[in-house]
Input
Amino acid sequence: MRAPGDALKARAMTKTSAGNFFEDFHLGQHIEHATPRTVTVGDVAVYNSLFGSRFAVQSSDVFAANIGYPRAPLDDLLVFHVVFGKTVPDISLNAVANLGYADCRFLKPVYPGDTLSAVSEVIGLRENSNKKTGIVYVRSRGFNQSRDIVLDYVRWVMVRKRNEAAPPPGDEVPELPKSVEPSQLGAGCPPINAAEYDTALAGCPRRFGDYKAGEKIDHLAGVTVEDAEHMMATRLYQNTARIHFDHFGESKGRFGRRLIYGGHAISLARSLSFNGLGNAFHIAAINGGRHVAPLFAGLTVFAWSEVLATAELPGRNDVGALRLRTVATKDRPCADFPYKAGDDYDPAAILDLDYWVLMPK
Amino acid sequence: MRAPGDALKARAMTKTSAGNFFEDFHLGQHIEHATPRTVTVGDVAVYNSLFGSRFAVQSSDVFAANIGYPRAPLDDLLVFHVVFGKTVPDISLNAVANLGYADCRFLKPVYPGDTLSAVSEVIGLRENSNKKTGIVYVRSRGFNQSRDIVLDYVRWVMVRKRNEAAPPPGDEVPELPKSVEPSQLGAGCPPINAAEYDTALAGCPRRFGDYKAGEKIDHLAGVTVEDAEHMMATRLYQNTARIHFDHFGESKGRFGRRLIYGGHAISLARSLSFNGLGNAFHIAAINGGRHVAPLFAGLTVFAWSEVLATAELPGRNDVGALRLRTVATKDRPCADFPYKAGDDYDPAAILDLDYWVLMPK
Amino acid sequence: MRAPGDALKARAMTKTSAGNFFEDFHLGQHIEHATPRTVTVGDVAVYNSLFGSRFAVQSSDVFAANIGYPRAPLDDLLVFHVVFGKTVPDISLNAVANLGYADCRFLKPVYPGDTLSAVSEVIGLRENSNKKTGIVYVRSRGFNQSRDIVLDYVRWVMVRKRNEAAPPPGDEVPELPKSVEPSQLGAGCPPINAAEYDTALAGCPRRFGDYKAGEKIDHLAGVTVEDAEHMMATRLYQNTARIHFDHFGESKGRFGRRLIYGGHAISLARSLSFNGLGNAFHIAAINGGRHVAPLFAGLTVFAWSEVLATAELPGRNDVGALRLRTVATKDRPCADFPYKAGDDYDPAAILDLDYWVLMPK
Output
């Protein structure tokens, strides 16, 4: 017989969400995420104070209007982080590792005043051989207040099982494109008047035609991360993953300290990439990304990029696409483009991101 | 005879405000506080980046409009902190301790673009037996630009005397309600369309009827506080209490370091309480609150809540009220609901807050 | 013969800007700076959270409208920092030291929603005798979206040479005014209705006539700076000087750590100066400024001011001007107004700022 106190405690337990475990998912599961979020010029300012982005289109309403936007759109990665953050309480609160991204497309500009929400579908499940964890594949979509899809991406995460004895909830690994086709790029960028794109004001003289596949660019500067900064960013996105916030718990955990949200490194690298890629004003797609190693406060992030390919966008003469690999490192300048030795990443590497950006022609 | 330098110094002294001391107050004194403050979506974003609040009504203009608000209102505690901050230069610049709150009612929603100002009345004074300090009771009111009262509360603080020999400026302790009556709740929440309140989007399936007096909820997560964070928050509210900002001075003071503004712990606990109380979208009143122990940077805050009572609001079918006790701790998870042993608080407790929240029916 | 890798590296080098070196400048050179920037209530909120400014005109749309502004203007120093930040990638990325400011005039109020851009002209060049560095004098102007000049100032910086053997690119030192004439003050402040200026709400009873040349004011409070704070501020201004951000690089550099942007100390001192100068609502001009010593995170900033002069503004009865010297120190309260011993600054001094503020009559 249970004492009344136990019953009370049990009821209390059900009031609090401990997140989903591997066996709680099923193939085809449709999850409507909380919390809808009106993004504002306030969010833009906090984001800028944390990353110092300098892309002119996102920085100036006048610059944006001159080339054909109604006003300055939000930084694409701010949109990504806000949508991603919504998925965390349902998808990855019990994640051991965020394994990868694929087929991520930015489909519509987002402006201050828009309200973002997110929905995910479980498209793959595979239990790991240790039966302690499994991999969950989800396709997540971000919507604006008109129910336009603004962002569509797949990610897969390794999630703990609540109960090792539970049968696997499914066994299917989705086929995912290695990269987004150029024909699928550009929905997130309205037709622009490239002649009105003022490269002097934008801070970089080079346009699409000035880049060639194979060239590498060291973005030179380094930026040190503080705990207050990554926590403020991650909270701004309403991302609730505890490993980023709880020093008391993490001091006894795997890393002995708070782990920085992987997206923080992506935003830092994007911001650093302005030096050399100043007119890469829009991220059209992310083909794939790996958080190669964890990042902690006190470390300094550097980055370099390689142009993997260039592509025309069918039917568009205003912009072209560069496929980039941007590698970020910690406490390691990138003048010699550190990447891999054989299959192993350089020990300083923290991020390997493969994505498409648009540049004016 | 005073040297000219002394006279100059004396005049200079009068230019600078060192704040009021105990003997500077008198019963019935009416104080109009500086500085009027237009609150904006920028303030909302900074607040969100510091606390990561996820209540849907305050997060989304669309969600708020669907249930009957004109748009997303400000977080109630942001309003509280801004009004409170205005009172600091006049009331508590020379405070030894912020002793308590009572009869705090949120009377009108505040929206971005509103301009807040504050007025206080001294309603009680009692010298302490050591004659070095006295207790000042003030009723403070926050107003919007239309002179509507948005917030009304009593707080009492222990304030230093400038001169121990000064006679006590008064001797009266006001009678204060132990809690706000349910009939006095709800002015700060417009009539809402509870049927349109989407609990899936809000992130919590439970409504007013799902909670019972006596149940306890562990809010699970912990969040570590950094010096940059609490100083940014406290400055956002234009709260000038030096103990929060001056490491040089405080390193030689009572705690050997900066003390975190007590309201910071309240906002952290409120934010943590989303997990388990996700539809408690409005703080209607604060019955009382104690800052049980000081909080410092580097510590991790956890929280749990007990439902003390449930109440109907006379004449309203849209929302009901829960009276909650939320206890926050430092470096101490709350699975076993740490509170008191006899009259003594658990050594990890930092906050004991008794308040009313509204939930949709 | 160069290997293909070298060619690739050389091409990559040209994509990235390492900033201008001394020999890259020439007299009369006109530089249009990136990045245009729409300033918003979000920027205001982040700025407020970092400096806690309390001047009523900038804090409240209602207060500002009551005296004749269309709404609350931006803090003058926020405008200064945003314009200054734009000049950094072109002027001072290779600076050894920021030597001084002169003839800085605020010519038009800036409001949330305005878009700022900047242009500089090289007005002086002088090589140092060691031939390793030279001094570059630039007149920089900030514009709003209507091409009105909102800010006009001269600064000079010591910039490294890329190649010691390069001939000096010019040899001319401009004549600069020791201070801005009172007749040149006030363009940045619309005619105000001084009778409607509510000193109680503003938090300070004293108007222009209450101050006399020679009086000194200790601003009392101290505020400690954190790395997260100064980096957030400096990024908010899109200031890219690496010395503020890269702990890894700077740990091996001149100071062994990140140097705080000099403008951070100016904003902190301005904010502290509210206590004693609460109605000095507008900075009309900066006559000159010296960053006497570097500031680092963990140190606490104090400040005091001396009224150097008072002046009427020709043709205006609404406001008068005070010429102030504000001195900021680190880890050193200012009750005894620390300044110079002979020609040497007090060892705790970090800032010596000479400027004009406007006050209501």
